[in-house]
Amino acid sequence: MQSETRTLDDVTAKLIACAVIVACLALGAIGLLLPLIPGLLFLAIAATVAARLSPAFESTLRRNATLAGYLDRTNGFLELPLGQMIRVACLLSVRMLVDGIALLVAGVMKLVKAAERV
Known about the structure:
Shape: elongated
Strand content: under 5%
Largest sheet: none
Helix content: over 70%
């Protein structure tokens, strides 16, 4: 009886994760078009959740040092109480946003330096 409940819980968790992935992908696509919504942040969240469902996708993401760090920070996330899950998700979202801004600034600086050489 307990294994049936566990299987149902696993299926329910996967369905919820799939719904989160679809919602984040939709928000990410909208965010790429509208400047008010941080599209890359939602795409990163979708990728992180998808990596938890697919070991092959996780190994692909781990090839990138930045994404591997995000995946390491989410280890044990599902075992946390709901309040801590929300806190970790918010902090990870802020971290992704800061990293994205830093990457954008670094890219702009490279373009400015390249323009100065010309």
